Amino acid sequence: MKRAGIRVAGIVQGVGFRPFVYRLAQQYKLNGFVLNDEKGVWIEVEGEAVAITSFVTALSTEKPAMSMIADLQRTSLPVQGEDTFVIKPSPAATQRFAFISPDIATCSDCQHELQNSADRRFGYAFTNCTNCGPRYSIIKDVPYDRPQTTMEPFGMCADCQEEYDIPTDRRFHAQPNACAICGPYYRLLDSKGKEILGADPLKAAHELIKNGAVFAVKGIGGYHLVCDAKSETAVATLRLRKVREDKPFALMCGSLARVEELCFASTKEKELLMGAVAPIVLLKKKNTVDLAQAVAPGNPYLGVMLPYAPVHYLLLEEDDIWVMTSGNTSEEPIAYKDEDALHRLAGIADYFLIHNREIYCRVDDSVVRLFQEEPYLLRRSRGLAPAPIHLGGTGPMVLACGGEAKNTFCLTKGDAAFVSAHIGDLANRETMDSYAEAIEHYGRLFDIKPELVAFDLHPEYLSTKYADGLKLPKIGVQHHHAHIASVLAEHHEREQVIGVAFDGTGYGEDGQLWGGEFLLADCQGYQRLAHCLYLPLPGGEKAVRQPWRQATWVMQELYGKNFREKQTALTESLPNGWELLLQATANGLNAPLTSSAGRLFDTAAALLGIRLYNHYEGQAAIELELAAGGVVGRVLPYEITAGNELDFRPTFAAMIENIHKVSRAELAADFHTTMAAAIHEMVRRLSRLTGVHKVALSGGVFQNMTLLRQVYGGLEKEFTVLLNRQVPPNDGGLALGQAAVARERGRL
């Protein structure tokens, strides 16, 4: 007889791990106990040595699907002569280091119960088990037990308690376990918050949505704004009320078959849609789409997801296609508290479908697309956060505050980096309050008391000001170095790489606005080897929203004061005051210099008359890519200066000279091909200069699949090319890079 103590760390709470251990102990005829604690799961087993060895092996090879074992340690203990195996209550937490499971999409067993009229959970909108359901969004504290969740007010009925207590049941120790008798429930309210009685809330909601109503629906991590995607009136109304002029809406389809009628979906994309994360997946739409034009104006792609919570399965029929967009107005965080939602969304929604289970942590939908048949994240949130990203080594505990747009923060402890769910743009008090609350909550959940705080160098970022207010040693991290470091952190790469960081803007160490950068970098530091040529931003920030401004300056640089003789869509659409703007720019008035690659895409779009005004971030660049539409481009002229600056003014000149000779699609494709060729040539030069043969690509510009395919396809033939995979290449991944840099510098 032997006795062993087994420490299991990782995502092992809230995923059915203790019931799994119980059943495994029964299988191998072992006695002892299992419990959740602040470090994960602790197991003590007693029995024959060979059985214990087989048991330990099976912990890793047969673990529950949603669990993740980061570490498993076995120690020998004195035999105690126990004759049973039990699940013990969790001890009070003293030092926390348990990982928390993300919220998990409804499993197939629970889906079957929802739709089985003979089952006691038929039609119950909060059906879950140990294999699925809410986790992070309802957890107040660890260990993960019901009193530490927002399910605490709902005492289990006798039937639910029996399921919870029987080790062989699928709901054994499922903390959110409930049914229609004892659990949460939905109510239907009008726009003024008055309850509409006398009808099944879900059935009534379905009928109202089908008849054109706009709904605010409380789900797992917050509110969605919902309407019928086939109704031109409903979608246009939602756009108007939400103050969202052109940006595409996300969709939810009632079935995979409906998705396949709308879009082309590969096997891998269908796996993403149906998996436990259940993100929004960007798919190419078919020509036969029967949707309102206002869903995704002029866009050949759709952001599509399938039902992932019981309420979705009950609200949508198989043929339904509904807009399912974040419950907010532009620039605000997603609403998740009832009182706040009723206040902020009252002018948008005709009705509210709310439930009485508190959402403790807001969490928006994740967004993903495929690149090279692997997920490429655009937003990391529900289903993914707060699962840790492993850094391949220990270091000081760090809080990295992230950037301004698409903000996330990151806390590190040991080998783990905990990147927050998507928070959004830190543009107002509501978002900043959410940001500060989330940092405090993460620190409490994972017992992280930061020793260092990392932040972006931009002095006006609210995240920078937040860091400045903390009484901690501070490490400023240049924006584009953080982008490249995020790739290095993911890949546990310690060697120097040539980092290509292309995005819209980031504060440079020379006080200018960077964004087209070639860096020699590791996680300790970087050297700026090359960049895109500086150009002025006429009118400063306004030029980001109005691409015609920089495009007009470029035309004047190329052709002088008579540039309007070129007679392009741009020159024929210049607003009043453009002459004064160019004069001010020439005098350096409110015209900061930028090396931004994102602004070059904007300029190209404006020169071609594709987009003169942006209604949402990156619109001109997105529409330039869409205009290229798969056309094979040519390499137009460009220059590399003696100072290793990429000058695309010759490219713009070639585009203008050909604007009446070839199609706009060809010129848009030419710009992409030229940009890719220039990147490739610059990387080759820098590789010869440095002897480095690894390249890391990051920054929001690399969300452009046309550019990414060409850049990656060219470079991979000669270099090892690394990409972001666990965090987005946009500013949603910035905090991971900041944390990686701060950890390295903190060791010195």
List keywords for this structure.
31% helix; alpha/beta; 748 residues; 4 domains; single chain; globular; Alpha-Beta Plaits; DHBP synthase; Nucleotidyltransferase, domain 5; 7-stranded mixed sheet
Structure at a glance:
The chain has 748 residues and is an alpha/beta fold. The protein folds into 4 domains: 2-87, Alpha-Beta Plaits, CATH 3.30.70; 186-355, Alpha-Beta Complex (DHBP synthase), CATH 3.90.870; 371-530 and 727-747, Nucleotidyltransferase, domain 5 (2-Layer Sandwich); 535-675, ATPase, nucleotide binding domain (Nucleotidyltransferase, domain 5), CATH 3.30.420.40.
Verbal overview:
The chain has 748 residues and is an alpha/beta fold. It has 4 domains: 2-87, Alpha-Beta Plaits, CATH 3.30.70; 186-355, Alpha-Beta Complex (DHBP synthase), CATH 3.90.870.10; 371-530 and 727-747, Nucleotidyltransferase, domain 5 (2-Layer Sandwich); 535-675, 2-Layer Sandwich (Nucleotidyltransferase, domain 5), CATH 3.30.420. It is 31% helix and 21% strand. The longest helix has 27 residues, at 664-690. The model has no long low-confidence stretch (mean pLDDT 94).
Topology:
Elements lengths: L1 E10 L5 H11 L3 E7 L2 E8 L1 H13 L6 E10 L7 E3 L20 H8 L42 H8 L20 E5 L10 H10 L4 E4 L4 E6 L3 H11 L7 E4 L2 H7 E2 L2 H8 L5 E6 L15 E5 L4 H6 L5 E6 L11 H7 L6 E5 L11 E5 L2 E6 L9 E2 L7 E3 L9 E4 L2 E4 L9 H17 L6 E5 L5 H7 L5 E4 L1 H12 L6 E11 L5 E9 L4 E7 L2 E2 L5 H4 L2 H12 L18 H9 L6 E2 L2 H11 L11 H10 L10 E2 L4 E3 L1 H9 L6 H27 L3 E5 L6 H11 L4 E4 L10 H14 L1
Parallel strand pairs: 2-5, 7-14, 9-12, 11-15, 18-21, 21-22, 23-30, 25-29, 30-31
Antiparallel strand pairs: 1-3, 1-4, 2-3, 6-14, 7-8, 8-13, 9-13, 10-11, 11-12, 15-16, 17-20, 18-19, 19-20, 23-24, 24-25, 26-27, 28-29
Helix pairs in contact: 13-22, 15-16, 15-17, 17-18, 18-20, 20-21
